[in-house]
Amino acid sequence: MPDPSAAPLLAVRGLDAFYGDIQALFGVSMQVAPGEAVAVIGANGAGKSALLKSIAGLLRAPRDAIVCEGEPIGGMAAFAVAARGIALVPEGRGLFPSLSVEENLMIGGQLKRAGPWSLQRVFELFPVLAERRNLPSTALSGGQQQMVALGRALMANPKLLLCDEISLGLAPIVVRDIYARLPAILAQGTSIILVEQDIVQALKAAQRVYCLQEGRVALEGATKALTREQIAAAYFGV
């Protein structure tokens, strides 16, 4: 379990974010402790993906608005953010269709960061990928492709894993299977931010939750301390 008294691994402070001239986030603040899973929920267009993209360096952000281990990283290039130990599992998986399962995974290890995750450890976490390591990623089911996307991010040995809609388009039984692997990831000391449409799964997996509404934090707190009524009111803005 994360230590609530520990300094945050990640702190987002009053973040504004834009897609061109359109503002997506308005003064968003959040924290993630070492070894903690945090859920970010909200309706479509609430700003969830904009938050992850800002953290990952894919959207411009003020330097001091995003701090990792006490160092400002806002506005850093995505490769520099990745080198600091932040890995994104993008919505839609973003696999390379011309590459095999193993080749897609190995791309995640290009940074050669020290840590517990290796090709063998990823295959232990997702045994089906070991069986299909030489197949093109296009030959896999949607759930298996999501496992490859997660495994590729883990190959970077991240301190913080950003998961953008990992349940999207998957059958409930597949979603449960993937979520069943998250405790093993947390056990290695990796923190996780879960942006998720499957609110039930996200709240089960996370210790704390932030609910975004129209680009602002409408509710935050420990998942066990919030009622369904509070979450629903913040989610729908009622």
List the helices and strands and how they pair.
Elements: E1 10-19, E2 22-32, E3 37-41, H1 48-56, E4 66-68, E5 71-72, H2 78-83, E6 86-89, H3 101-108, H4 119-125, H5 127-131, H6 142-154, E7 160-164, H7 172-179, H8 182-186, E8 191-195, H9 199-205, E9 208-213, E10 216-222, H10 228-236
Parallel strand pairs: 3-8, 3-9, 6-7, 7-8
Antiparallel strand pairs: 1-2, 1-4, 4-5, 9-10
Helix pairs in contact: 3-6
Largest sheet: 6 strands, mixed
What average pLDDT do the residues reach?
93
Total helical segments: 10
Low-confidence stretches: none
Strand content: 15-25%
Radius of gyration: 17 Å
Shape: globular
| Strand line-up of the largest beta sheet | 6-7-8-3-9-10
| Distance separating the two termini | 33 Å
Helical content band: 25-40%
Q: What class would the helix/strand composition place it in?
A: alpha/beta
- The count of strands amounts to 10
How are helices and strands ordered from N to C?
EEEHEEHEHHHHEHHEHEEH
Please characterize this protein's 3D structure.
It is a single chain. This protein is α/β, with parallel strands linked by helices and 238 residues long. 32% of the residues lie in helices and 24% in strands. The protein is built from ten helices and ten strands. The protein has helices spanning 48-56, 78-83, 101-108, 119-125, 127-131, 142-154, 172-179, 182-186, 199-205, 228-236, and strands at 10-19, 22-32, 37-41, 66-68, 71-72, 86-89, 160-164, 191-195, 208-213, 216-222. The strands form two sheets. Strands 6-7-8-3-9-10 form a six-stranded mixed beta sheet, sandwiched between helices. It has a four-stranded antiparallel beta sheet with strand order 2-1-4-5, with helices on one face. A hairpin with a 2-residue loop joins β9 and β10. It is globular and about 50 Å long. The model has no long low-confidence stretch (mean pLDDT 93).
